[in-house]
Design a protein that fits this description.
Helices cover about 45% and strands about 5% of the residues. With about 400 residues, the protein is of the alpha/beta class. The strands form 3 sheets. Strands 1-2-4-3 form a 4-stranded mixed sheet, sandwiched between helices. A two-stranded antiparallel sheet has the order 5-6. A hairpin with an 8-residue loop joins strand 3 and strand 4. The longest helix has 26 residues. It starts with a helix and ends with a strand.
Length: about 400
C-alpha cells in the first residue's frame, strides 16, 4: 500500500460530539447528473503552457464536486449542494471531492468505479510513482473500497439500524499529495427530512468538515524551488503534524465553527431553531469533554490524539479552547481572518499562534488547563453572542 496514503489515513478528520454523528457516503452512478460541478470543469491538472498547478491550497472558480451513490434520494442531492454552497461562500472554494456512500453494495461499487475514473482523469495512475499515485485502476479500486467506501457503507447500515437522526460517519481524508481534498460521508439520513433535527445536524457536519478543508488549504506541505512549477516541488509528509498544531486545535476550531455558523444560519432564517441556543451547544460540548476526560486522568487536551481513549475531548473541550482564544482577542473570526492566513504565509505555527493571541501555546495551556474546571458562570464569558437577524458574532 502507498506510503503517502497510509500516512494521511492517520490524519483523517471527522466531526465529533454526542449530538453529531459522523458519516461518509459515496457518489452518484455515471448516469446521474446531480453533481455540483459543471461538466466542463477541469480538475487539479497542470496547465500546459505555464506549469502552474492547482493544489490543495488553491482557490478555484467551481463549487465542491459532489458524488452520490445511486441509492441516495435525489432530493438529498440538492440539500447537500445547498449546505456546501453556504460554507463555500463563507470560506472560499477549494478543490474538493465529496463522496456520499449509501447502503446498497452494488451502488457502492459503482461509486468506487466513479472515484477511480476521476483519479485516472486527474492523472493519479503511475506505476513508477507509487508514493503519490495508484499503480492502475484495480489498485485504486482495492484501496478506495477497503479503506473507505465499504467502511462507510457499514456505518450507514448501522445508522439505519440504530435509528440515528443523521449520518453516522464523515471525514476529511487527505489526498493533498494528489492535489485535492477528499471528503467521504456515510448515508446522510438527516437530509431526507427537511428542517428536522437531523437536518440541522447534517448541516453542522458539512460546516465542520469543510472547515478542515479551509484549515488544510492554509498549510503548505510542499518544498519547492519555484512554487508555481510542479516539477520543482516535493511533497513533505513530515510537515503535516507540525503545521496542524495539535488535534485539539484542528478539531476544537472545527466544532467552534460548526456551532457558530449553524447559529448564524438560524438567525438569518436559512435554518429553523430546533436545537436550543449557542450556550446550550457549548455546554453540551463541555459535558461531553468532561465525561471522556475521566478516561485520561491528568492529561491536557494539548496532548490528546485520535488514538487516545479520551479522543472525543479534543472536540468538546477543544471547542472551549477555541472560544477562549477568540475571547482573548475579542474577535470570533480570528481563526479565518488572522491565524490561518498568517500560517499560510509563514508556515510557523508557534510563531503565528504567539503573534495572533499574544501568548505562547505553553502560556495558553498553563491558563486553560485550570480555567476549564471553573464554574459555568465563570466560563460562559468566552461564548460569543449571535446578533439577531444578521447572525454576526461579537463579544458584548
Amino acid at each position: 500500500m502507498k506510503k503517502s496514503i497510509i500516512l494521511l489515513l492517520v490524519l483523517t478528520m471527522c466531526s465529533g460530539g454526542a449530538e453529531q454523528a459522523q458519516t461518509e457516503n459515496t457518489s452518484q452512478t455515471e448516469n446521474t447528473e446531480t453533481t455540483s460541478q459543471t461538466e466542463d470543469t477541469s480538475t487539479t491538472s497542470q496547465t500546459e503552457d505555464t506549469g502552474e498547478v492547482i493544489n490543495h491550497m488553491s482557490l478555484v472558480d467551481y463549487p465542491a464536486k459532489l458524488y452520490f451513490a445511486g441509492d441516495i434520494p435525489t432530493e438529498v442531492h440538492s440539500r447537500v449542494e445547498y449546505a456546501f454552497s453556504i460554507i463555500q461562500e463563507k470560506l472560499g472554494k477549494y478543490p474538493v471531492e465529496i463522496y456520499f456512500v449509501g447502503t446498497d453494495e452494488s451502488e457502492k461499487d459503482n461509486l468506487s468505479n466513479l472515484f477511480c475514473t476521476n483519479r485516472e482523469e486527474a492523472g493519479n495512475f503511475d506505476p513508477n510513482d507509487l508514493q503519490f499515485n495508484f499503480r492502475d485502476f484495480d489498485d485504486c479500486m482495492n484501496f478506495i473500497d477497503e479503506r473507505y467506501f465499504s467502511e462507510y457503507l457499514r456505518s450507514g447500515l448501522e445508522t439505519e439500524q440504530r435509528g440515528y437522526q443523521a449520518s453516522g460517519n464523515k471525514g476529511h481524508n487527505g489526498q493533498f499529495e494528489q492535489r485535492y481534498h477528499l471528503l467521504v460521508w456515510s448515508k446522510p439520513i438527516g437530509f431526507e427530512v427537511e428542517n428536522g433535527e437531523g437536518y440541522n445536524i447534517e448541516f453542522r457536519g458539512v460546516f465542520h468538515e469543510y472547515w478542515h478543508v479551509f484549515q488544510m488549504a492554509h498549510m503548505d506541505f510542499y518544498n519547492c524551488s519555484d512554487k508555481d512549477v510542479r516539477s520543482t516541488c516535493n511533497f513533505d509528509f513530515d510537515s503535516i503534524d507540525y503545521l496542524v498544531g495539535g488535534t485539539w486545535l484542528q478539531e476544537g476550531t472545527a466544532v467552534f465553527k460548526e456551532i457558530t455558523i449553524l447559529q448564524e444560519q438560524i438567525k438569518i432564517g436559512n435554518l429553523k431553531n430546533i436545537q436550543g441556543d449557542i450556550f446550550q451547544d457549548f455546554n453540551n460540548q463541555y459535558f461531553d469533554g468532561q465525561r471522556v476526560m475521566e478516561q485520561c486522568p491528568g492529561m491536557s487536551i494539548r496532548d490528546i490524539t485520535y488514538r487516545d481513549p479520551c479522543s472525543q475531548a479534543v472536540y468538546g473541550w477543544g471547542a472551549w479552547a477555541a472560544a477562549y482564544l477568540t475571547h482573548k482577542v475579542n474577535d470570533p473570526y480570528v481563526f479565518e481572518n488572522v491565524y490561518y492566513p498568517e500560517l499560510k504565509k509563514l508556515s510557523d505555527p508557534e510563531l503565528v499562534f504567539a503573534n495572533t493571541f499574544g501568548i505562547t501555546r505553553d502560556e495558553f495551556f498553563a491558563d486553560f488547563d485550570s480555567w476549564i474546571y471553573l464554574s459555568e458562570e465563570e466560563r460562559k464569558i468566552v461564548i460569543p453572542t449571535v446578533e439577531e437577524q444578521t447572525g454576526r458574532l461579537y463579544y458584548p
